[in-house]
Amino acid sequence: MAFFRGLTAVSRLRSRMAQEATTLGGVRWLQMQTASDLDLKSQLQELIPEQQDRLKKLKSEHGKVQLGNITVDMVLGGMRGMTGMLWETSLLDPDEGIRFRGLSIPECQKVLPTAVKGGEPLPEGLLWLLLTGKVPTKEQVDALSKELLARSTVPAHVYKAIDALPVNAHPMTQFTTGVMALQVESEFQKAYDNGLPKSKFWEPTYEDCLNLIARLPPVASYVYRRIFKGGKSIEADNSLDYAANFSHMLGFDDPKMLELMRLYVTIHTDHEGGNVSAHTGHLVGSALSDPYLSFAAALNGLAGPLHGLANQEVLLWIKSVIDETGSDVTTDQLKDYVWKTLKSGKVVPGFGHGVLRKTDPRYSCQREFALKHLPEDPLFQLVSKLYEVVPLILTELGKVKNPWPNVDAHSGVLLNHFGLSEARYYTVLFGVSRSMGIGSQLIWDRALGLPLERPKSVTMEWLENYCKNKAA
Ligand code: NMX
Ligand code: MLT
Q: Relative to the CA of 277, which ligand 2 atom is closest?
């Protein structure tokens, strides 16, 4: 780390961000940085006071402005449509999908640095963007790759903690156990115990988040190799970027799989703040629980079948279709199978969303990847057929607000194509990526001094009385 801290002073002197706000596709767009600003933490040091002032102004000038009316339906309906938290790193539009700091996925694919000419974005670039709101240069991304690598050593007790679990424990249980074991090294917890003032909370949070993000690929690949490959681990390759190295440690070195992993990690990072994992991470973090504790809590939410576990469910469901009908499944057979799933009281995994009302752009970019790299893959063709069949049926069902596919409908068949066929593992990959979004926002939560999250709850009796009094 000394190397990067040394760079801070130099880059501070040399750096002057290009302050121009430009527009791209009608969106107010971002600042680019000069190649000399290689240290991410020094960028944040410069940005934080500006953003603190901005928040203060927002509060003092507009604190009493109403954002909408809360209805009884919203209280009873999982707070859907209720604006209730600040989340700086990304924003979700129901029709258009996610924008990371104002940039859509296709825009990110255009402007973020890549490992391969014309290839997929490097997730380190997205991490930089999430944290700073600025598109990094390739040099900055390379420096961040090196920084993450330098932080990636996992203490031996973490592997022992995982080894204490039965090998058939769910991969998410093993992964989260690893994250909890990493918590022993929390710099935030130590600094807090030593009386660090609130104005400096973001600094050890930054250290924890970067360490956590850096250490997740070795922990996650250890879990994979332990469960599915007889415990034979693979050493990191220090010449590779974050996602490629992760793929390598899992045991997959096909250059197309490395590209897939770069795309996969990039698109799963963040989906604004209200989704179960992000919201949980933010909520737990608001108690000043350190980033490891917050992220482990988030992972436990991600492990639910209506959230991140849906990627496992999709591949298992697709394989169950083939088991029942054979690989040459006809459209009618597919329709029957979807109806059978629905009539048995189950959801069709990979379809629907709490906010989105159109096809998830994360689905669309994975489809683009498949069309480019594996158009003949039979499971990809089945996924394409499902796109024609499922939305019509879900619409016919009458109650589903969004019949279109989400991110999880597509990811499994891509991984499966390159040999990562163990569906039970898929949510761990989602978790590794999500650390970048949740971690980035946690740093900003501490930098902006956001308070303990504590919404008001009420009983049914309270609601009944309230409505009676209103009607009177
Ligand atoms: N299959 C069957 N029924 C569905 C589906 C689906 N794919 N999606 C929604 N419904 C039902 C839902 O269960 C509810 O039924 P009921 O009133 O009987 O409880 C009704 O339609 C209305 O739900 P919505 O308001 O459309 O959706 P909601 O916001 O409550 O839930 C999901 C969103 C994502 C939980 C829901 O669409 C779902 O269960 N999808 C399948 C699981 C999935 O793919 N999850 C992954 C989401 C993305 N991620 O990675 O987290
Ligand atoms: C996510 O990526 O978190 C999911 O799409 C769920 C959500 O946004 O609610």
A: 3
Q: Give per-residue pLDDT as tens, 120-156.
A: 999 999 999 999 999 999 999 999 999 999 999 999 9
Output the 3-class SS for the chain. CHHHHHHHHHHHHHCCCCCCCCEECCEECCEECCCCCCCHHHHHHHHHHHHHHHHHHHHHHHCCCCCCCCCHHHHHCCCCCCCCCCCCCEEEECCCEEEECCEEHHHHHHHCCECCCCCCECHHHHHHHHHHCEECCHHHHHHHHHHHHHCCCCCHHHHHHHHCCCCCCCHHHHHHHHHHHHHHHCHHHHHHHCCCCHHHCHHHHHHHHHHHHHHHHHHHHHHHHHHHCCCCCCCCCCCCCHHHHHHHHHCCCCHHHHHHHHHHHHHHCCCCCCCHHHHHHHHHHHCCCCHHHHHHHHHHHHCCCCCCCHHHHHHHHHHHHHHHHCCCCCHHHHHHHHHHHHHCCCCCCCECCCCCCCCCHHHHHHHHHHHHHCCCCHHHHHHHHHHHHHHHHHHHHCCCCCCCECCHHHHHHHHHHCCCCCHHHHHHHHHHHHHHHHHHHHHHHHHCCCCCCCCCCCCHHHHHHHHHHHHC
410 is catalytic: no
Q: Look at the pTM and tell me if it is higher than 0.90.
A: yes
pLDDT, tens only, 162-198? 999 999 999 999 999 999 999 999 999 999 999 999 9
307 is catalytic: yes
Q: Is the CB of 347 under 6 A from ligand 1?
A: yes
Residue 417 annotated as catalytic? no
271 lines ligand 2 (CB under 6 A): yes
Residue owning the nearest CA to atom 6 of ligand 2: 275
The verdict on the CB of residue 354 being under 6 Å from ligand 2 is yes
